[in-house]
Structure formats: C-alpha cells, structure tokens
Here is the input.
Amino acid sequence: MLNIEQGTFLVRLARNAIEKYLEENIIIGAPQCDEELKKKRGVFCTLKTYPLNVLRGCIGFPYPVKPLVDATIEAAISSAVNDPRFRPVEKDELKSIVVELTVLTEPELLDVPRDELPKHIEIGRHGLIVERGYASGLLLPQVPEEAGWKTAEEFLAGTCWKAGLDESAWKDEKTRVYRFEGQIFKETKPNGEVIEE
Here is the structure.
C-alpha cells in the first residue's frame, strides 16, 4: 500500500507529464523518488472533466511490467492523447480536468467453478480482467459504483462486454477471469489537493 504522500507525488507527476507533453511535446524522465515507487506495478490514469465528472480518457498498464513512476508518466500521456474513444486533450483543457490514478495489485486468476465466480468478487474492492482468445477487457474497481451495478454478475457481464464478448461469456470455462485491487488517488479539483478514495 502507498501512503498519501506517495500518491500525491504520483498524481502531480501524471499532471506534469501531460502538461509537458501538450506544451512542448516532451516526454519527461522519471524524477528522484522513493524506492517503493520504483517497483514494478500496474497503474491506470483516468482523466475526468471538472466539475461535471465526465470521463475524458483512461489508459494504463494492467500488469506490473514497468517501474511505477515510468508507468505513471506513460499512462498519463496516453490517457490524454491516445485513448481511441476521445479526441486528444487540448492544452487549454487541462485547467478543467481532474487527474486520478489507480495503482493496481497483480491480477490473480480466479480458478474456481463458474457458478462460484461471483462469490469471489467484491463490488467496490475488486477490478476485473476478462480474456478469451485475442479478446480482453478490463474494468477498474470504481466502475461498478459509477455504472450503478450492485452485483458481481452485473460486473462480470460488463467486463465481458468491454472485451467485445457476449455478456454471459464469463460462464464459459474457456474465458479467463482475473481480479485485482486498486488504490485510488485523485485531485479534488484541477491541480488541487490529492486525496485517497
């Protein structure tokens, strides 16, 4: 688990990375930081409009393939300019965008009978990855609440849909389901105080 100082450091780093990229087309290097932030971790950067809280971009690394500081910089820039669902963020827009980071635990394969799968998923605590063949979908732990889903079955169906699969694909043994947890740090307003959710 990261502390609030480490979380604040990462959120500020994400904003700085986006600003430098949009203003000067520069990808900043990783700054000096705690050893904890140099460990390989998965991370997602989510951008939302302020004050309406509408999604503006979300990209990240599900698996711990890079040091957390490097992954944060890359995810932040990608969420601003490479999310295929949105046009790239403009420089002037940043003053009305809130930066949120979700630092992930390593995804864990749920190797249990299909009818027991929902019992191993806790809404609000777990995020999900669904994989089948080349199809893959990921939803962060905060998504069910935002979407109004109350049950693990709804969450599983939504993650299958995100992967481009039938919503009941999680019931098939050929579909792999992983769960993970996420620690969320976000600005209260653009460039404002950072809190942990």
Summary: The beta strands are 42-49, 55-61, 97-104, 108-109, 126-132, 135-139, 176-187, 194-196.
